[in-house]
């Protein structure tokens, strides 16, 4: 599995953890590209998520890793692209299951949630775990069908930014 090409990115809240993950990837001779950010200066996580998700979706990279403060926002943004299955994982069990059962193609993590040691273990498990297919392939196909369906989730009206639901 060392031939997996990885796109990695973060916002300012995930910068230090991204740098630690990059060191680990380099030590393992993994092929990766860093999409930024390149400092702790404030940036908007959707911009980074979009670049990494596009690179995974178009096949330039096999998988992506995205990091923000919690891993939540950057994952929500990445999951807006058809074909992306970004999974938030803060433990190795979830990392393994996200690959085996969900064929996740982007891993998200939160620097403010986990430390570098655990994050490294999560990345290692996630990169070394294959999709098992079988009954799970049917479920992934159903997700793809939802993405492609007329009147699917992407075409429904939602709340405007800042609007509350009451």
Helix and strand topology:
Blueprint: E1 5-10, H1 15-27, E2 31-34, H2 45-57, E3 63-68, H3 72-78, E4 86-88, H4 92-100, E5 106-110, H5 116-128, H6 135-148
Parallel strand pairs: 1-2, 1-3, 3-5, 4-5
Helix pairs in contact: 1-5, 2-3, 4-5
Brief sketch in words of this structure:
The chain is 42% helix and 14% strand. The chain is α/β, with parallel strands linked by helices. The protein has a 5-stranded parallel β-sheet with strand order 2-1-3-5-4, sandwiched between helices.
Structure description:
The structure is a single chain. 42% of the residues lie in helices and 14% in strands. By secondary structure, it is of the alpha/beta class. Helix 1 (15-27) crosses helix 5 and helix 2 crosses helix 3 (72-78). The chain is globular, with a radius of gyration of 16 Å.
Essential attributes:
166 residues; alpha/beta; Ribose 5-phosphate Isomerase B, Chain: A; 5-stranded parallel β-sheet; 5 strands; 42% helix; globular; disordered C terminus
Superfamily (CATH H level) name: Sugar-phosphate isomerase, RpiB/LacA/LacB
Mean pLDDT: 91
What are the low-pLDDT stretches, counting only 5+ consecutive residues below 50?
150-166
Which fold does the CATH topology refer to? Ribose 5-phosphate Isomerase B, Chain: A
Overall geometry: globular
Largest sheet: 5 strands, parallel
Overall domain count = 1
Overall SS class: alpha/beta
Query: What is the CATH architecture term?
Result: 3-Layer(aba) Sandwich
Rg over C-alpha atoms, rounded to the nearest angstrom: 16 Å
* Binned strand content: 5-15%
Determine the number of helices (DSSP H or I, runs of at least 4 residues).
Answer: 6
CATH class: Alpha Beta
C-alpha termini separation: 48 Å
Helix-strand sequence: EHEHEHEHEHH
Number of strands: 5
Q: Roughly how much helix do the residues carry, as a percent range? A: 40-55%
Q: Oligomeric state of the chains?
A: single chain
Q: In which order are the strands of the major sheet placed?
A: 2-1-3-5-4
